Amino acid sequence: NTMNKIIYWILRIIPAVIMLQTLWFKFTAHPQSVKLFTILGMEPWGRISIGIFELIASVLLLINRTVLPGALLGAGLMCGAIFFHLTNPAIGIYFDGDPVLFIYAIATLLCCVVLVIIKRRQIPALLQLKF
Description:
This protein is mainly alpha-helical.
């Protein structure tokens, strides 16, 4: 029905917009992004490569046929982000005194996990892809 379609699109748009919005910080070497990846010992290669993967995940989420791989990639990226927020005291939940990055990671992860659950029947077909 129409409400389910709207919810489905919202679940796709929220993580795509969050990841696309943070790309500006990663790709322009914004001081906060450089600081975060320097703390992780991943500057600049980690900042740029994570940004590329977030761009790929965002595009995949917005294409109907590729929602599942986009959601899986987005969930994996956000698990990594949340892991570092929770295990690295120099980053923490309130990086630079602001919880927005952590909140974005949680919101993106939740949307992606729900999308994976919705698309779970497609997982066997995805695993059988030949490259």
